[in-house]
Request: fold
Amino acid sequence: MKGQDLYNRAKQIIPGGNHLLSKRPEMFLPERWPSYFSKSKGCQVWDLDGNQYFDFSTMSVGTSTLGYANDTIDDAVIAGIKSGNMSTLNSPEEVYLAEKLLELNPWAGMVRFARTGGEANAVSIRIARAAAGRDKVAICGYHGWHDWYLAANINDNEELRDHLLPGLDANGVPKGLRGTVIPFTYNDLESLRRVINENPDLGVVKMEVVRSFEANTEFLKGVRSLCDANNIVLIFDECTSGFRETFGGYHSNFGVSPDLCMYGKALGNGYAITAVVGRREVMESAQSTFISSTFWTERIGFLAGLATLSEMEEIKSWEIISRNGKKVKEGWQNIANSNDLRVTISGLDALATFSFDDMHLERKTFLTQEMLSRGYLAANVFYPSISHHDEVINNYLEALHEVFYSMSKLDDDELIEHIKGPICHSGFKRIN
Reply:
């Protein structure tokens, strides 16, 4: 396997083997995952050995709702590249994209751009702290790799366990940040109220609008009310949830607006572009601090963002991917029931996931192994795209039924015997 050979070389010269935890082969099928791609198109991926797979996993960690190598997006980017990607002057497309995002977020008045979700989160925290005049931040959800966020794990490296980062030490994060970031529990307004009452110097609340749990209107309204009553800047992190079940932020479904909101992943359909959208009076605080980076001005991201939003609006992509995700979620449940396997399904239709109620990692590893042999990149997460047509989904569900049936016939010991390598990882783990 050329991919595994290359990955073994990578681990010798790249700490951790690659640059994104969610793409580590160990998270899927240690020692057997293809690891690298030579080509991607629609919802298909080709590895270095020429094998072709249908991607029923994360579609590059949620970046490609319009499918890989979408012709409309690529044509816009290529045309822009031919006119030059960088210059001493600015790209006009950054203004056009900012105007479009403000059109979609009528509560907002200004926009700043970055290229990654972690950057956008850090930018939003800097602006919010400057606006609030207070340093402490209450968080709920996953918000990237920067010092401000990982500071939550300085006292106890399990603080972020419920925020998608189990087992992560805060090595390298300045100890002086201890106590500046305090987690609270989703859909538990009292947990946030306690954090606010115990930290009078709290200036910012930052949260994902939704991830694994069903969003609750009263909870979101309660968060907004608590922030208003205590003069706290409220940030919604929609880097993952944005543009999936709505044309814009998922928060618009609940009639609750933040002070700042981040968009990423789906915004550029595979090209690097993220945005911080906010109320004018809060965003103006960016002028009183320093937030600047050379490659935040390159043209590709703005071109991709404009083309992506135009394509989304024309075909109503959020309706298509939600329908595709719902069909797969229903298929998961039906197949599990018919094979007497217990699963728990969660997440939005457009961000679907499930877990086995017993021996989850072992069953997930077996599932990934068997689906790979049938031509699918598939585990227990599915981020749908418009390229997942009914025929493709039906074929996937047929293959999944075969694997679930095989799994149902194995006892625990036999299941482990049928796994041809190590069990997959569940979170951060040092790679040697």
